[in-house]
From TrEMBL:
Coiled coil: none annotated. Keywords: Signal. The keyword Signal applies. Residues 51-71, 109-133, 156-184 are annotated as: Disordered. It comes from Fusarium beomiforme. InterPro entries: OrsD. Residues 1-18 form the signal peptide. Residues 164-176 have a biased composition (Low complexity). This is C2H2-type domain-containing protein. The lineage of its organism: Eukaryota, Fungi, Dikarya, Ascomycota, Pezizomycotina. Residues 115-124 have a biased composition (Acidic residues).
Length: 197
């Protein structure tokens, strides 16, 4: 599928952005999802349709390009990408999903030393109230998975219960470690959905 907002190809099975070009798409689907035969040929044909000589010529961006402009913070979530619970440093634009990265940033950046000289009370985990106040809980999206993720903050949406949350669940740790989705009917549906987009 093509993400119109960003001009990138999205794999609906992962879901992440993939490099444009038939070789990269073929490599992704063959190696990551074990796609073969007619299904693989359909996906390759879809990607080829965006080449200059294809039926839908379009210049697609490379999601691995560090200079690629990401959506602005506070933008609506892109429905085809995962939305994750994360943290935003209030002193700079450091975004992370991981508490240990958050705490490491706090120490290395020394933001807490700049703000106040007086000591705050510490909780049983050794974190001062000042350290906890320097972070804001946010919802994040990224085109790529860790360790190459570049996050942006997405607006939260109200659920039927009136609580704040994301429109999609944060299925991060189990999915990231397992390498994707289950094979079978979901692959057929995802490929079909991708090809028809």
């Amino acid at each position: 599928m093509v993400c119109k907002e960003l001009g990138v190809l999205l794999c609906l099975l992962c879901p992440v952005a993939i490099k444009p070009g038939t070789d990269q798409v073929k490599h992704h689907y063959r190696n990551r999802h074990r796609t073969v035969g007619a299904q693989l040929q359909e996906v390759i044909a879809f990607a080829a349709s965006f080449s200059p000589s294809g039926s839908r010529p379009r210049a697609l961006q490379d999601p691995t390009d560090e200079d690629m402009e990401l959506p602005v913070d506070g933008s609506p979530p892109i429905a085809e990408l995962e939305t994750y619970a994360g943290f935003s440093c209030k002193s700079c634009r450091h975004l992370t999903r991981d508490r240990s990265n958050r705490d490491r940033h706090q120490v290395l950046a020394k933001h807490n030393e700049e703000e106040h000289e007086e000591e705050d009370e510490e909780d049983e985990g050794g974190k001062s109230s000042r350290q906890r106040r320097n972070w804001e809980s946010v919802m994040l999206q990224s085109l790529r998975r860790a360790p190459h993720a570049r996050y942006w903050i997405v607006e939260t949406v109200r659920t039927r219960r009136g609580s704040r949350g994301s429109s999609r669940s944060s299925r991060s740790s189990s999915r990231e470690g397992s390498g994707g989705v289950s094979v079978g009917a979901s692959v057929d549906f995802g490929l079909l959905k991708l090809v028809r987009s």
